[in-house]
Amino acid sequence: MERRRVRLPHGVRRWLTFWRRSTQARVVVSTVLLSAVVAGAVGWYLLRETRDGLLDSRVQTVVAEAASETREADEDLAAVEVRDRDVADQLRDLADPIIERGETRDFAVVVAGPVDDERPLDQSLASYTSGLDPGASVPASLRTRMADVGAPPGWTYTTIERRGADDGRPAVVVGSQVRLPADGRTYAIYLLYPLDDEQRTLDLVTSSLLTAAILLVLLVAGVTWLVTRQVVTPVRLARQVAERLAAGHLQERLVVRGEDDLARLATSFNQMATNLQRQIRQLEELSRVQRRFVSDVSHELRTPLTTVRMAGDVLHDARDRFDPGTARAAELLQTELDRFETLLADLLEISRFDAGAAVLDLEDVNLGDVVRRVVDSTRPLADQRGVSVAIEDPGVAVLAEADTRRVERIVRNLVTNAIDHAAVGGRDPGIVVRLAADADASAVAVRDYGVGLEPGESAMVFNRFWRSDPARARTSGGTGLGLSIALEDTHLHGGWLQAWGRPGAGAQFRLTLPRRAGFALRRSPLPLQPEDAPEPGEPVRAPAAPTTPGRR
Question: Which domain holds residue 183?
Answer without folding.
Answer: 83-194
